[in-house]
Amino acid sequence: MLKLRINPVVAKDLKNIRDYIAEDNEDYAAKTIKEIYGKFENLQMFPGMGADLSKRVSFRTDYKYAIWEDYVIIYKVSNEYVDIYRVINRYQDITRVFD
């Protein structure tokens, strides 16, 4: 099984997601973050389950993406690692995370 690496920016992404949801429902916010981490583990076990990000953006990239509810997990697979790059709302412009 590949090792999992999480970009430090992902912690900020998840905090923002949790804070936004927690304004209405603390329990659901905690559940959402837990489920996103579960998705990271799924990607670690099955890294090919996502789609090529190049098909969704107007530039060539080695990143892949997986959608879980309203969130897009952007990641890259190498020989040893699944690198989680960002977690964003699916309605955000994905290209902006690469600026």
TrEMBL record:
<dbReference type="InterPro" id="IPR051803">
    <property type="entry name" value="TA_system_RelE-like_toxin"/>
</dbReference>
<keyword id="KW-1277">Toxin-antitoxin system</keyword>
<dbReference type="InterPro" id="IPR007712">
    <property type="entry name" value="RelE/ParE_toxin"/>
</dbReference>
<dbReference type="InterPro" id="IPR035093">
    <property type="entry name" value="RelE/ParE_toxin_dom_sf"/>
</dbReference>
<comment type="similarity">
    <text>Belongs to the RelE toxin family.</text>
</comment>
<protein>
    <submittedName>
        <fullName>Plasmid stabilisation system protein</fullName>
    </submittedName>
</protein>
<dbReference type="Pfam" id="PF05016">
    <property type="entry name" value="ParE_toxin"/>
</dbReference>
